[in-house]
């Protein structure tokens, strides 16, 4: 910052430092007007200036005479401004007519009277002008001091920036009033960061008003949104409420009249009682359908009853299994047909996910490894045209619903979840079921005999559960179409039923890692199509039946880790049809004699090694 330029005081052409005392009030003895200034006090009718100059040029203290054009000694010792005033182009006394007129008068008396008159006339006018100039000088001095103080330290307090005032004893009342005016003007106009204080006030007020306005708008916006979201979570009751619009209430009642008896599982006379519990998925799903869903909002009659039921049932699935946390939303709850609630891949592709339709009817629902968490709602049974249901590898728990209404269902895959309990007996009503995969859950109990009614079943996967008890003899007689039976890693006990030999179409039979005892039934030798037969990890005893030599399609036969004994060379080694044959064929004592086994284990079914 440049150093502030000191402004001239006008007294003697010298500079005034901020620390110096202000000039004293005017006195004719110590100050005379600057000859460059226009003196407004000499405005009489005659030329008094010429008169005074002539008189003063010839006036001197007593005993001292002046010669024309000379300067008195007491004037020479005065200030330069007085010299310039009194001596400016003085005319010789003997050439001025006024001098000639006063030649015979008493020079001293005239000079005294003229001086007195001059002083008197000058006093009033000069006093006003001196006061005005002193005010200007003080203002300049204050500004100079303020600029110097800002340069020295910008963090000093305002009290330290204000220049010290003169003691009251040394300042006149006029000076105090002038100084107060100057300081008041300074207070109102000092600058902060180059902007006047009054302007800062206006700026801060404007900013404050803008902030208040913006905050108010922000609060109003979110208040409206929260009100809207809250209203969306409320389901109107059958009776009209002041908070529910007539159109919404009318839509609620119309939908309830059309599908209420179908979707309600409550046995009471009021079909709406199931929707009174606001914590349930049913409440939220019907609320969405009646209030939020915009699909067909203007023409509800264009949507069939079954389509309304489908939308409700799928919405229950979404809310019951935390749809908002799914890995992929799959367009669920979008205001489009449920047939478009999928990932856009053809349903025949293994990567297809979502809802697919045939002739505008939901027939295919596949959501694999998508983070579904919760119980499987029984409302899925409302999808009466569903053919394929695959919810593998999610986090579903609770009991498996019966889904008895799904008469058209052919595929039910719920593997790798956390289901518990028994297989519901109602599942026997799924007479079209061809593939049932419940493996890798925590199901328990015995196999229900009612499954025998699933005459179209060709795939039954129950591995990695906790089933126990005997395999029902009567179960297998009617499952003539079964091709794949997997009961691995359960707790089934007692003997293997001989009725399994009736499953002549069976291709894969997995009975390993259970608790089966007794001997192998010779009836299993009738399974001409059997390619994979795994029995390891059981407590079977006795020899391998000779009838097994008729298993011409057999490629995998694993019996290690059992108590079977004898020689199987005559059964399996006479031909090369078995690709992988594993038995307890080494160690001491030797349990199985097998020269063609691809893998031999010790008597405990351990330390298996390839038999080269």
Summarize the structure.
The protein is of the alpha/beta class and 612 residues long.
List keywords for this structure.
612 residues, alpha/beta, 13-stranded mixed beta sheet, 10-stranded parallel beta sheet, elongated
Strand runs, count: 25
Gyration radius from CA atoms, angstroms: 58 Å
Low-confidence stretches: 1-46, 59-104, 157-163, 165-171, 226-246
Largest sheet descriptor: 13 strands, mixed
Instruction: Classify the secondary structure makeup into a structural class.
Output: alpha/beta
Shape estimate: elongated
Q: Which whole number gives the mean pLDDT? A: 77
Distance between the termini: 98 Å
Range of strand content: 5-15%
Q: How helix-rich are the residues, as a percent range?
A: 25-40%
In DSSP terms, counting alpha (H) and pi (I) runs of 4 or more, how many helices? Answer: 12
Strand order of the largest sheet: 3-4-6-8-10-12-14-16-18-20-22-24-25
Q: If you had to describe this structure to a student in words, what would you say it looks like?
A:
- By secondary structure, the protein is α/β, with parallel strands linked by helices.
- Helix content is 29%, strand content 14%.
- It contains 12 helices and 25 strands.
- It has helices at residues 48-57, 73-76, 80-86, 97-101, 107-152, 158-161, 173-189, 197-232, 246-263, 281-292, 305-320, 569-573, and strands at residues 191-192, 195-196, 354-358, 361-366, 373-375, 388-390, 395-399, 411-413, 418-421, 435-437, 442-445, 459-461, 466-469, 484-486, 491-494, 508-510, 515-518, 532-534, 539-543, 556-558, 563-567, 580-583, 592-593, 599-600, 609-610.
- A 13-stranded mixed β-sheet has the order 3-4-6-8-10-12-14-16-18-20-22-24-25, covered by helices on one side. The chain has a 10-stranded parallel β-sheet with strand order 5-7-9-11-13-15-17-19-21-23.
- β1 and β2 form a beta hairpin.
- The relative contact order is 0.04.
């Amino acid at each position: 910052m440049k150093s502030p330029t000191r402004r001239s005081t006008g007294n003697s052409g010298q500079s005034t430092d901020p620390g110096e005392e202000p000039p004293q009030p005017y006195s004719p003895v110590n100050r005379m007007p600057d000859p460059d200034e226009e003196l407004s006090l000499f405005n009489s009718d005659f030329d008094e200036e010429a008169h005074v100059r002539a008189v003063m040029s010839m006036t001197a203290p007593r005993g001292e005479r002046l010669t024309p054009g000379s300067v008195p000694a007491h004037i020479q010792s005065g200030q330069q401004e007085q010299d310039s005033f009194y001596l400016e182009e003085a005319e010789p006394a003997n050439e001025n007519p006024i001098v000639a007129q006063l030649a015979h008068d008493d020079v001293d008396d005239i000079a005294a009277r003229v001086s007195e008159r001059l002083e008197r006339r000058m006093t009033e006018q000069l006093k006003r002008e001196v006061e005005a100039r002193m005010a200007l000088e003080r203002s300049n001095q204050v500004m100079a001091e303020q600029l110097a103080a800002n340069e020295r330290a910008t963090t000093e307090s305002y009290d330290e920036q204000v220049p010290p005032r003169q003691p009251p004893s040394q300042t006149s009342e006029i000076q105090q009033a002038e100084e107060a005016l100057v300081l008041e003007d300074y207070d109102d106009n000092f600058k902060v960061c180059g902007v006047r204080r009054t302007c800062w006030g206006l700026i801060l007020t404007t900013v404050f008003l803008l902030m208040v306005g913006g905050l108010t708008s922000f609060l109003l916006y979110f208040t409206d949104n929260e009100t809207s979201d809250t209203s969306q979570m409320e389901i109107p009751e059958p009776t009209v409420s002041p908070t529910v619009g007539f159109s919404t209430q009318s839509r609620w009642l119309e939908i309830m009249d059309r599908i209420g008896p179908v979707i309600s599982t409550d046995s009471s006379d009021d079909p709406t009682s199931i929707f009174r519990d606001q914590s349930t998925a049913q409440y939220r799903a019907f609320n969405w359908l009646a209030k939020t869903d915009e699909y067909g909002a203007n023409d509800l009659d264009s949507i069939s009853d079954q389509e309304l039921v489908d939308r409700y049932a799928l919405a229950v699935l979404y809310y019951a299994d935390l749809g908002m946390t799914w890995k992929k939303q799959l367009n669920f709850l979008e205001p489009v047909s449920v047939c478009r609630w999928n990932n856009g891949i053809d349903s025949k592709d293994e990567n297809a996910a979502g809802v697919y339709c045939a002739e505008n009817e939901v027939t295919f629902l596949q959501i694999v490894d998508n983070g579904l968490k919760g119980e499987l709602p029984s409302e899925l049974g409302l999808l009466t045209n569903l053919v394929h249901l695959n919810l593998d590898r999610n986090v579903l728990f609770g009991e498996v619903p019966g889904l008895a209404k799904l008469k058209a269902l052919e595929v039910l895959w719920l593997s790798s979840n956390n289901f518990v309990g028994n297989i519901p007996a109602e599942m026997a009503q799924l007479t079209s079921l061809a593939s049932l995969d419940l493996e890798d859950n925590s199901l328990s109990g015995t196999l229900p005999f009612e499954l025998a009614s699933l005459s179209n079943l060709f795939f039954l996967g129950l591995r990695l559960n906790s089933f126990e008890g005997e395999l029902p003899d009567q179960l297998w007689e009617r499952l003539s179409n079964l091709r794949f039976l997997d009961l691995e890693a359960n707790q089934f006990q007692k003997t293997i039923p001989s009725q399994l030999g009736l499953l002549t179409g069976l291709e894969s039979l997995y009975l390993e890692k259970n608790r089966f005892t007794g001997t192998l039934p010779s009836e299993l030798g009738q399974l001409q199509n059997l390619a994979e037969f795994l029995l390891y990890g059981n407590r079977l005893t006795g020899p391998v039946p000779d009838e097994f030599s008729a298993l011409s399609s057999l490629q995998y036969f694993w019996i290690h880790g059992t108590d079977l004994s004898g020689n199987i060379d005559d059964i399996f080694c006479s031909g090369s049809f078995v690709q992988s044959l594993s038995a307890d064929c080494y160690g001491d004592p030797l349990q199985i004699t097998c020269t063609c086994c691809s893998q031999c284990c010790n008597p405990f079914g351990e330390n298996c090694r390839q038999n080269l």
